Automatic annotation (TrEMBL):
Pfam families: LRR_1, LRR_14, LRRNT_2. It comes from Populus euphratica. Residues 41-80 form the Leucine-rich repeat-containing N-terminal plant-type domain. This is Probable LRR receptor-like serine/threonine-protein kinase At1g06840 isoform X1. The lineage of its organism: Eukaryota, Viridiplantae, Streptophyta, Embryophyta, Tracheophyta. PANTHER family: LEUCINE-RICH REPEAT RECEPTOR-LIKE PROTEIN KINASE PXC1.
Length: 502
């Protein structure tokens, strides 16, 4: 049978049954193959150039000189499983998130021709985004958020037709949003918020038929809101807060965005009327505050509404009766407008019965002059009426208690877990940070937790409490865990808009 030719087989091997021989044979074969396969030499050089332009104080990349990147497991480098037509293994992912790296991104990144994931998020990178990245035709994820990158967005990124997600938020990018991005024909997420991107939003972006989330808040955009964006069939989140579209209105066509869940246009210098959004079936979140909007509040919004913030505009007319029929509403902010008529007390009477549900209604500084119904909201409803005529003429304690003008702490969405278990204090092993599993079916079961921080970039709720359980079920079912294996330790709002940490 020729077994003797394999150095890894001893003489005893001759007595093995056939199936075991096959196993031994294929094992030897595999070892030989792995040693024979190496990374593409041009990619090795590109990686060394990438390392050279980085500053790596914690020495995370110290193994980027030993042997071959694909065979020797360089930190953050993942390769194809088998050789390509050129006989080499290729780098498919570069994942160097949160490693205190500074320095800049080398143009040689463009030579990693089969790269699918490029992830440098949460470092201290400076310099600009190399245009050469636009030649990575297989790239699916380009994740550069949370650095100090400057310069403008290269037009060449528009060539990335396989790109699913572009995250460049929280950098110092300036210059325009390139028209060429209209060619990113697979993109679902454009996260470009918190930079200094300026100029007009290109109307051409309506071609992005796969786009889900457009986050451009906290930039320096100007011009008008393109009505064409209403043609985006999958669009779920439009977030443009803190830009200056001086004189632009909100296009009426946005009422045709049938998948829209969140529209946030706070402080955008917008004029004109609020469009009819009544046929957006799953709108959860509407923030049009701090603009110059006028006219009346649209008479109907989706039953899914969690948050309505139309404060600090010039809206007149009365509060729509349909707002008394929003079963999941958590926040209604209409303060600092010109609203008149009565305060509808049935807004909170129609809520769904969730134990942890809460509702904040802020109607301060309007022209509301009467109450319809009995003014006795339950404890989980916060009502503010200060600065309305109804407070000036108020003579009963029923009304004056809601007339303070102070800002209450209604944004409190914080929690820390308090264990209710009657387990012996510190009876878990202290090495490896063991602790009790709060929801374990076995009482006082110790385990060493894997701690994960989860940052929601664009939540639609104002209070998280009612969503703790659905969120736990979502995470555990997605990860194939039992619900007791996940415990939400704490959650809080992070400084700045639209963020919650869990
Ligand atoms: C590869 O590196 C990781 C950490 O960077 C380490 O956990 C793993 O054991 C290494 N694998 C091999 C085969 O060296
Ligand atoms: C980053 O640097 C900080 C202090 O400068 C240090 O505490 C932290 O552990 C570093 N993180 C990593 C991943 O190297
Ligand atoms: C952002 O870039 C501008 C120049 O474009 C520079 O003046 C500023 O210091 C940078 N800010 C940060 C935080 O790096
Ligand atoms: C999109 O790509 C095509 C070629 O594929 C090019 O002709 C066109 O100018 C690009 N569009 C934009 C808006 O850059
Ligand atoms: C914002 O854009 C204007 C031009 O539209 C420019 O003059 C200004 O310097 C930019 N501001 C920032 C902070 O980038
Ligand atoms: C409103 O947006 C402008 C930019 O248009 C910004 O300078 C200003 O700080 C924003 N105001 C608030 C309260 O965020
Ligand atoms: C908007 O533009 C008008 C003139 O068209 C100007 O008077 C006003 O100051 C601008 N407002 C803002 C917030 O830029
Ligand atoms: C909404 O779309 C329909 C057809 O899809 C169109 O007839 C209508 O004009 C659109 N409405 C607006 C306001 O664009
Ligand atoms: C909710 O309120 C509306 C109008 O106030 C009323 O017609 C309806 O019956 C209420 N629904 C429930 C479930 O209480
Ligand atoms: C207040 O809590 C009760 C039950 O605790 C619930 O039925 C009701 O829907 C809640 N109200 C609001 C406005 O969330
Ligand atoms: C005042 O409150 C009491 C209960 O606290 C309620 O019975 C009464 O109807 C209220 N009066 C008005 C005018 O809302
Ligand atoms: C984004 O920019 C705004 C306005 O400058 C700021 O309030 C907010 O904290 C920033 N967000 C992040 C995540 O840096």
């Amino acid at each position: 049978m020729g077994f003797d030719y394999f150095p890894c087989l001893g003489t005893k091997m001759l007595q093995l049954r056939t199936c075991e021989c096959v196993f031994v044979l294929s094992y030897c074969y595999l070892v030989l193959l792995t040693v024979a396969q190496v990374s593409s030499p041009s990619e090795v050089n590109a990686l060394l150039a990438v390392k050279n332009s980085l500053i790596d104080p914690m020495k995370h990349l110290s193994n980027w000189n030993k042997g071959d990147p694909c065979a020797f497991n360089w930190t953050g480098v993942s390769c194809s499983d088998s050789a390509g037509t050129d006989g080499y293994l290729h780098v498919q992912a570069l994942q160097l998130m949160n490693m205190n790296l500074s320095g800049s991104l080398a143009p040689e990144l463009g030579q990693l021709s089969q790269l699918k994931i490029l992830d440098f998020m949460w470092n201290e990178l400076t310099g600009s985004i190399p245009r050469e990245i636009g030649s990575l035709s297989s790239l699916k994820l380009l994740l550069l958020n949370g650095n100090k990158l400057s310069g403008s967005l290269p037009d060449e990124l528009g060539y990335l037709t396989k790109l699913n997600r572009l995250q460049v938020d929280q950098n110092n990018i300036s210059g325009p949003l390139p028209k060429s991005f209209a060619n990113m024909s697979s993109v679902r997420h454009l996260h470009l918020n918190n930079n200094s991107i300026s100029g007009q939003i290109p109307p051409e972006l309506y071609k992005l038929s796969t786009l889900f989330h457009l986050l451009l808040d906290n930039n320096n955009l100007s011009g008008y809101l393109p009505p064409e964006l209403s043609k985006l069939p999958e669009m779920q989140i439009i977030q443009l807060d803190n830009n200056n579209f001086n004189g632009s209105g909100i296009p009426a066509t946005y009422g045709n965005l049938s998948r829209l869940a969140k529209l946030s246009l706070r402080n955008c210098s917008l004029h004109g009327a609020i469009p009819d959004l009544s046929s957006v079936p799953n709108l959860y979140y509407l923030d049009l505050s701090e603009n110059n909007l006028s006219g009346s509040i649209p008479s109907k919004l989706s039953d899914s509404m969690r948050t309505i913030d139309l404060s600090e505009n010039h809206l007149n007319g009365s509060i729509p009766g349909s707002f008394s029929n929003l079963p999941f509403l958590q926040r209604l902010s209409l303060e600092n407008n010109l609203l008149s008529g009565s305060v509808p007390t049935d807004i909170w009477q129609n809520m769904t019965s969730t134990k942890s549900a809460r509702l904040t209604i802020d109607l301060r500084n309007n022209s509301l002059s009467s109450i319809s119904g009995a003014l006795n909201p339950p404890d989980n409803v916060t009502l503010r009426l200060g600065g309305n005529p109804i407070c000036e003429s108020a003579n009963t304690a029923n009304i004056t208690q809601f007339c303070g003008s102070e800002d209450g702490g209604d944004r409190k969405a914080e929690r820390s877990r308090k264990s209710m278990m009657a387990c012996p204090v510190q009876a878990c092993p202290t090495d490896n940070f063991f602790e009790y599993v709060p929801a374990s079916p076995l009482p006082c079961f110790c385990a060493s937790p894997l701690k994960v921080g989860y940052r929601l970039k664009s939540p639609s709720f104002s209070y998280f409490d009612p969503y703790v359980l659905p969120f736990e079920l979502y995470v555990t079912s997605s990860l194939d865990l039992n619900p007791y294996q996940l415990a939400i330790d704490s959650y809080f709002w992070e400084e700045g808009p639209h963020k919650i940490f869990i």
